[in-house]
Specification:
single chain; mainly beta; four-stranded antiparallel β-sheet; three-stranded antiparallel β-sheet; 54% strand
């Protein structure tokens, strides 16, 4: 999978707001097939984890994530990674403005 993570990050007053759109079908399996959904999302700056979230099949298609942190500063590069229950994964990155 390519280009499934879109990120915007902006710092103001020492707090950085990070917004991310994760393109994924998030199929729950109600049609008799196995479900296919994101199970974990992680946000990192370098090797430092600033955000970790567990998901399940109840999250809608193309999840939108928005969080604030003081651990990320202007000029830092934030990397957001996801993994799904089928072992697929992707990541995206953006510089904080």
């Amino acid at each position: 999978m390519a280009n499934t993570v879109r990120i915007r990050a902006k710092e103001a007053g020492g707090v950085t707001e990070i917004k991310a759109l994760l393109k994924h079908d998030m199929a729950v399996g109600q049609d008799g097939k196995d479900g296919h959904y994101i199970t974990e999302v992680t946000g990192q700056v370098g090797d430092k984890v600033v955000f970790n979230m567990l998901m399940g099949s109840a999250v809608s298609k193309d999840p939108y994530i928005n969080f604030k942190t003081s651990a990320v500063k202007k000029g830092d590069e934030i990397v957001i990674k996801w993994v799904d229950n089928k072992g697929e994964s992707d990541e995206g990155s953006a510089k904080v403005k």
